[in-house]
Amino acid sequence: MKGLLFCSAAVGALFATAPALAQDSGAAGAAPSRQAGNAAGVTLDANQLAEIIVTAQRVEENSQRIPLALDVIDSGELTRQNVVRAEDLSRTSTALSASSSGGPTAIFYVRGVGNGTVNAYSDPAIAFNYDGVYIGRPSSTSGMFYDLQRVELLKGPQGTLYGRNATAGAINVIPKRPQIGELSGEITAGYGNYDWYSGQAALNVPIGDRGAFRLSGTVSNHDGFQKDGTGSQNEYGARAQVYAELTEALNVRVAADYAHQGGSSSSGYYIGAINPTFGPGGFTGYQFVPSGFGPGEGVHTPAAEAYLASRFSTQLGRAGATLSSYPYNDNDYWGVTAEINWSTDAGTLTVQPAYREASLDYQFTNSMRAGFSQEKDQQTSVEARWAGDIGTSVDYLLGAIYFNEAIDARAIYNQLSLIPFQAFSSKTESYAGFGKVTVHPVEGLSLTAGGRYTSDRKRFDGDATVYLPFCGNPAPPQDFCPNLPFTPLLYNQADFESFYQTRGIPVTPVPLYVLPGYVDGTPFVLRAPMSIDSALHNDKFTYRLAAQYDFTPSNMVYASFETGYHAGGFSFARGLESYEPESIDAYTIGSKNRFFGRKLQLNLEAFLWKYKNQQFSQYGYDLGNPPSTVYLTRNIGNSTIKGLDLDVEWLATPTTLLQANVQYLDTKYDSFVYFTPNQGLPPITSCPYAPTTQNTASGTISVFKVDCSGFPAFNSPKWAFNVNARQTVPLGKVKFVLEAGTRYRAGTWVAADYPTYTRASANFVSNASITLASEDNRWFVTAYILNIEDERRLAAVQNNSAASLAAGGTEQPRTYGIRVGSKF
């Protein structure tokens, strides 16, 4: 409601009568640039590389003239890489790793910095911005990737202009804008394997001589990528925008969008079993036995179900588990925003209020039997910026932002032997003021200083009950509790408790470590209720210093230092209800160049990041009475990240474009220490560990101290490169465009603890396409193939400790198809 009120005045203003001049509307929330440029990034001269105008620093600038490490993915590249979801962006940049971990949530890492936690009471480490609006939930990034002008990936902390939750960087998704005086439209349709049909369309209509309306939409549907049918997609969305120039100085744009996400998330596949081994002296280690399944198996096929059923659960005292549900997505997203720009001789004022809402209802399976979540997210924000200059020697930007988020959710995680029911609400209120000033003391030299003060207030109020079905003290291979049923996915606690009680199995709050009178084969369901009412208040100042020297209009060097801040959050863990913010310091030197009449682009960046007080999520004991095994986040240590990034583009001829991007990355955890439960066997890890104790409200308990210091960061391949070649062959009124490329990623760890099966192997993934198009690009027909090698690289690993299994999620398989399009 607040967002609707914020936008109401702007909606009404659109239809006010006032003279206007037509101009190209800029990118979201951007003050007009003092430089002339082509905002669409289209080549102005076929004999030189395009000038790409970006708004990464909240004003329109040539991407080659700013002291900032960023990748720009234009609309053509997004189409060629078949980017329809946020996680698909990982195909476009060597710095970005993106995946989905069940349900709608996208997980991002930039150069090993990210957040693998996917629950609703933690924040992402990358600032995701859609149409100039910060998106607070990583589960709300669906349904946006159509009719786009470009996507900007800012690499490294963006604490000054983007503020909180931007330790790893920022992703800006920028839609195309309404164009005054233009009646135009475009449509694209495609069909491919997995019965994949997709389409996008847009219509731009002028409103008099001072306004325009743009309507666009998308649909994307395909069958599952797994043999069990999971990994399917059923998505559609629409976006409407109205733009008006009310006076020569005042313009307003109002936008509304809606998206639906259906289908099912991928179930992954069982990688293998982790079996403890014993000798005369007792435990000798773990043996990993591969399952024999390929990455496309899924976990719901008869073979996968039989494999799970064969596993003996020590805690439950039996084998024979089966999955109890099938994954689905039923998620809806919508939002409204207004962008108001008022230009004066002194500068430009930009105000952007916004309201967004998400209603999530999804179910997933991977290493656990089933997970279920229902969630309502509401966010309201308003940002104001003033951009100006003082003569030709000083540019400046001042701004402030207010952000308010409210989340109500309930979730169930059925993990065979650990079944938590959760219901909670979370609220965030954040205020920030920021500024940036650039001075030009002598010709060619620019010095920049910026800062941001952020005040975050967060509150978490929730109730959870953790259930543990338990069967005395059995030992395999016998089934000591053959009649202890496996719990189906039940959606409320009353049904869950009734399920066991009606079968003569008591549900008791007796602590796990005090079970008087039980004998082997006497089952219980242990109940551990908890209530969390916690608050956080964090204030943080982040800043940026940069220097740039232009040798020529096409050649520059720069150096910068910037800090970033990732807010703290909450866990369902008594005594460990909250965790502190993490921060990062980034040192960068770089050079951006164009040579030979702007036919060759050569950009080089060297970086050193210091990542401090890092947040890490894992299973562990809370400090309650009695202690419970919970999924919690802690601050566990520091890491160092350094490397080089080389980007090359060469327009070898007016019809031949060659591109290469290479990244070298060296990461190391300087300190990475955490505690994990001691339940009789050592942890499954390649890191050194030692038994110790932990104090709780009920006394001391046994835990293991695990020290992974010295190991590399997750999702940080040492080498990564993308290469691509595009050849245009003119044939009179038509042309052929031939394109081929490959990307390489070295091996990397994708999960905690570093057992060998959590390492993704090095691989190549290649793409190719051939396009027949009209000379003026009014129509085209494309045949394409992505992932020619059909390489399904490991993207995530989860353990099912009750069944001693590991399950993995992978990247997409080979896809191919045709795509046709037309515009007028």
Considering DSSP H and I runs of 4 or more, what fraction of the residues is helical?
A: under 10%
CATH superfamily: TonB-dependent receptor, beta-barrel domain
The CATH architecture = Beta Barrel
In terms of structural class, how would the helical and strand content be classed?
A: mainly beta
Inertia-based shape: globular
Largest sheet: 22 strands, antiparallel, barrel
**Which residues form runs of ≥5 with pLDDT under 50?**
1-44, 512-518
Instruction: Name the quaternary structure.
Output: single chain
Number of domains: 1
Structure in words:
The chain starts with a helix and ends with a strand. It is globular, with a radius of gyration of 27 Å. It is mainly beta and 824 residues long. A hairpin with a 2-residue loop joins strand 34 and strand 35 (699-707). The chain has a single domain (27-268, 326-464, 532-823), classed as Maltoporin, Chain A (Beta Barrel). The strands form 7 sheets. The chain has a 22-stranded antiparallel β-barrel. Strands 3-9-10-7-8 form a 5-stranded mixed beta sheet. It has 4 helices and 44 strands. Residues 1-22 form the signal peptide. Belongs to the TonB-dependent receptor family. Keywords: Cell outer membrane, Ion transport, Iron, Iron transport, Membrane, Receptor, Signal, TonB box, Transmembrane, Transmembrane beta strand, Transport. Residues 64-170 form the TonB-dependent receptor plug domain.
